[in-house]
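Tip: read the tokens left to right.
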């Protein structure tokens, strides 16, 4: 499985390399349009061959000769960054890219309908990839397939990323992207130790049903970001060790989604995390929200080290954590009880008594600890929901001091804690 994941990662990285190699240095003074055919290349590790039967380039500042020279496979990272930073093109369209590998990990992937519109110095109106389909075989003899729907990016500005890549570290650059959407993917990989004729088959399945993200900006500053990854799932062959372990836990598949909703106010230098949540099918939901102050705009626009330095100057006005159970807690309890050879009801009682007896002692007998233990005990006894809120007793807490909250004495001296169960 790990090798298969590496194979997919390799395929995706090679496809990005192949398409980014199509953005050459601006040397022509007038815009040109032309078509390149049967472009062949290899990835930098020289393990995957790339064939691009046709590249349609419209309204570019790069000559045909320079384009042909620059799609060569031996282009350096620095030169590639220069290319991305200087190219202009009204449209680039690639109907098909074929990536094949034939060494210890075999595979063939086909990318279709790659389109870029209004590319200008690493900024673009739209980039889309219609689909990806492929097959692979790992050196452990596991066979896999990969299939993806359309991926779309709109309103992008990667100029800072390109500049950071040229300097040696792309992560120092901050990308702007107004819209991202993915219609989903599914990857399968066989388990060589399980027969194909076994009940339920012998393939692992990983997938995503859809994903979207939207960001609003004020200049370079992100002011509003919302996103969701829906229907991420994992299914194991029932006869495999993983499948049996999942069944023992009470699941035949794992499926969950993630949502994010946050707003930054540059004038007030505040950030409101309205929702950062995980929701699992037949499991439950875990949601985090909070308010942050004293966040300088450089927290969102600087290079990596300076972003972190700016973040450490911020403060936490409040944090809220809420868990709503939909079967996960009881499944975990039954699984633990079975592993210990105990009755689940007895384990539930033990956990409840342990919380009531030990938590106040660990927290020095503070009255807050008593209320917290009561809420946790009530949740263990009848798991419906649990909400915990934190806020500073004397105002917002320094983000730089967040790690100290693991110390019970510091936590209780600086933070007001509220816990409520089953409401």
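Filled-in amino acids:
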């Amino acid at each position: 499985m790990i090798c298969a994941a590496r194979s997919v990662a390799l395929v995706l990285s090679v496809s990005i390399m192949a398409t980014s190699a199509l953005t050459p240095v601006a040397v022509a003074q007038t815009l040109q349009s032309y078509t390149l055919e049967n472009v062949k290349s290899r990835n930098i590790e020289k393990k995957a061959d790339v064939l691009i039967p046709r590249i349609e380039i419209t309204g570019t500042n790069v000559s045909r000769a320079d384009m042909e020279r620059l799609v060569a496979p031996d282009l350096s990272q620095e030169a590639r960054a220069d290319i991305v930073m200087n190219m202009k093109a009204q449209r680039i369209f690639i109907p098909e890219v074929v990536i094949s590998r034939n060494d210890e990990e075999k595979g063939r992937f086909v990318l279709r309908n790659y389109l870029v519109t209004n590319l200008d110095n690493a900024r673009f109106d739209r980039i889309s990839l219609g689909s990806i389909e492929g097959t692979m075989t790992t050196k452990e003899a596991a066979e896999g397939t990969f299939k993806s729907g359309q991926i779309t990016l709109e309103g992008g500005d990667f100029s800072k990323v390109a500049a950071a890549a040229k300097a040696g570290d792309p992560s120092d650059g901050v990308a702007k992207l107004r819209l991202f959407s993915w219609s989903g993917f599914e990857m399968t990989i066989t388990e060589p130790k399980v027969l194909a004729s076994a009940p339920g088959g012998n393939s692992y399945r990983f997938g995503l049903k859809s994903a979207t993200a939207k960001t609003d900006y004020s200049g370079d500053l992100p002011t509003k970001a919302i996103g969701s990854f829906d229907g991420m799932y994992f299914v194991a062959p029932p006869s495999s060790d993983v499948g049996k372990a999942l069944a023992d836990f009470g699941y035949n598949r794992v499926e969950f989604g993630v949502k994010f909703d946050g707003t930054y106010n540059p004038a007030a230098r505040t950030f409101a995390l309205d929702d950062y949540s995980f929701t699992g099918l037949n499991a439950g939901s875990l949601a985090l929200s909070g308010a942050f102050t004293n966040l300088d705009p450089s927290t969102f626009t600087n290079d990596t080290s300076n972003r972190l330095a700016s973040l450490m100057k911020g403060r936490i006005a409040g944090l809220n954590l809420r868990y709503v159970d939909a079967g996960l807690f009881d499944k975990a309890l039954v699984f633990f009880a079975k592993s210990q050879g105990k009755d689940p009801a007895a384990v539930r009682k033990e956990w409840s008594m342990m919380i009531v007896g030990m938590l106040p002692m660990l927290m020095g007998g503070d009255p807050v600890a008593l209320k917290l233990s009561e809420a946790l005990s009530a949740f263990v006894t009848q798991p419906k929901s649990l909400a915990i809120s934190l806020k500073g007793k004397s105002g917002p807490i320094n983000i730089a001091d967040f790690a100290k909250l693991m110390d019970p004495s510091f936590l209780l001296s600086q933070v007001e804690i509220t816990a409520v169960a089953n409401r």
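The CA atoms of residues 92 and 293 lie 44 Å apart. The first helix runs from residue 2 to 20.
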